[in-house]
Amino acid sequence: MSDTSSAASTAAATLKSLPTDMELVLKVIPMPADCNANGDIFGGWVMAQCDLAGSVIPARYAKGRQATVAVNEFIFKQPVRLGDILSFYSKLVRIGRTSVTVTVEVFAERFRAQGEYIKVTQATFTYVAIDDNGRPRPIEKPDA
Ligand SMILES: CC(C)(COP(=O)(O)OP(=O)(O)OC[C@H]1O[C@@H](n2cnc3c(N)ncnc32)[C@H](O)[C@@H]1OP(=O)(O)O)[C@@H](O)C(=O)NCCC(=O)NCCS
Q1: Which protein residue has the closest C-alpha to ligand 1 atom 28?
Q2: DSSP character for 32?
Q3: What letter would DSSP give residue 51?
Q4: Domain tally for the chain?
Q5: Beta strands 23-28 and 85-95: pairing type?
Q6: How far is the CA of 135 from the centre of ligand 1 (A)?
Q7: Ligand 1 atom with least separation from CA of 72
Q8: Which of 5, 17, 45, 55 has the fewest CB atoms in 10 Å of its CB?
Q9: How large is the C-alpha radius of gyration of the chain?
Q10: pLDDT category, 1, cuts 50, 70, 90?
């Protein structure tokens, strides 16, 4: 981690609060093993955490085995730094016949500036309920 890196000089809008229209589904602090060669957090690590976070709401509807079928959008808006406290928020977008689509937004609190939040990542994922043979399985609609 270096304050002279180009990533460190990227301007980021600082927020004073976290979303109220999304659900907090995961909080995690990245460790040194999660860094890339620049000392920032490796994008693949962030993607894996987002996939886990995104699966929480769909699991409520799938009520069983499910698989990630698509990452419809993934934007790394700001770098994630070692020691950041990451909050993953998620919201339902669509319930299909066998699939559920959600958005995930990730907010970082820099370790020395807690209470100030920077949106670092946003993504959209689709999960499919699957049966024992790994084939798509109809999901129960909440109002059914
Ligand atoms: C998930 C899987 C079972 C779906 O099988 P499939 O034959 O493609 O299924 P279908 O074409 O019937 O699509 C199933 C649902 O996924 C949706 N879907 C498929 N491809 C999609 C895509 N690219 N983007 C968004 N949704 C998609 C379909 O719209 C459908 O949703 P609906 O029933 O709610 O309308 C199969 O693709 C699979 O096993 N993929 C690997 C999953 C995996 O291993 N994930 C982890 C990656 S390491």
Answers
A1: 99
A2: G
A3: H
A4: 1
A5: antiparallel
A6: 9
A7: 24
A8: 17
A9: 17
A10: very low
In a domain? residue 15? no
Distance CA 87, CA 16 (A): 14
139 within domain boundaries: no
Domain limits at 59?
23-129
- CATH code of the domain in which 72 resides: 3.10.129.10
Band (pLDDT 50/70/90 cuts) for residue 144 is: low
Percent of the chain with pLDDT over 90: 81
Residue 71 within any structural domain of the chain: yes
- pLDDT for 142: 74
Task: Give the helix ranges, DSSP H, for the chain.
Answer: 43-54, 56-62
Structural domain contains residue 12: no
Residue located nearest, by CA, to atom 39 of ligand 1: 134
3-state helix, strand, coil in the chain (%, to 5): 15, 40, 45
pLDDT tens sequence across 13-66: 899 999 999 999 999 999 999 999 988 899 999 999 999 999 999 999 999 999
* Nearest protein CA to atom 24 of ligand 1, as residue: 70
In tens, the pLDDT along 111-120 reads: 888 999 999 9
